[in-house]
Amino acid sequence: MLSVIATITFVFLIFVIVVPAAYAEDINTIIPCSSNHNNPIFFDTSSYYVQKGQHVRWFNADDINHRIIATKSNGKELLFDSGLIKPNGSYSYNFNNIGSYNFSSPIYPWMKGNVSVTDDMSSGTIRHLKDNVDVKLAWTPITPKVGQTTHFKIIFLHKNTELNQPHIDYVFSINNLMNKTVYQKGLHSSGE
Description:
Elements: E1 7-9, H1 10-16, E2 19-20, E3 26-30, E4 47-51, E5 54-60, E6 66-72, E7 78-85, E8 90-95, E9 99-104, E10 112-118, E11 122-126, E12 133-140, E13 151-158, E14 169-175, E15 181-188
Parallel strand pairs: 1-14, 3-5, 4-10
Antiparallel strand pairs: 2-11, 5-8, 6-7, 6-9, 9-10, 11-12, 12-13, 14-15
C-alpha cells in the first residue's frame, strides 16, 4: 500500500498550478460486500461532480456481479443500464449533457448515488511530487464565492501511467489570502 502524506492548499493551487489537467475518466469503485445493506458504504464515492464530456467508470471490486442503472434526476428517463458487471470488470459512461443524474443498483436498492455534470469546473495538476504521484485537484464552481458551496475532487495519479493511486493518506487545507488555514481535514483516497 502506497502511503504518502500530501498537503494540498487550495489558494496555492489557484495561483501556482503548473499543468492544466485534461478531464479524464473518473473511477467509482463498487466496494466489496456492497450487496449487504448493513455495509457502511457501497461505492467509494456516492456523489460525483464531473465536467461535461467526462467519463465515469464503475469498477466492481466485489466478488459478485453487480448492475448499475442511471436516470435523469426526475427518475423517469433511463440514461443507461450497465448490464452485469462481473468481479474486476467495469462499465463506463460518457456524460455529455449538463444536469443531475441518479445511479443505483436494481438488484440492491440501497446502492445509490448521483452525478452532477457541469461546465463550471476547473482543475489543475501538480507534477513531479515524490513517490511518482501527481496530484489533480478539480473544483466547482470555477470562481467560488463567500457563502457558496464549493465541491473539490482530489485524484492521485501515477505520473508515468496516469492511473489512479488508491490508499493515499493526505491533508486537505484551504488557506485564505493571509495564509491562515480556514479549513483542514485529514483524508484517505479510495478507489481502484
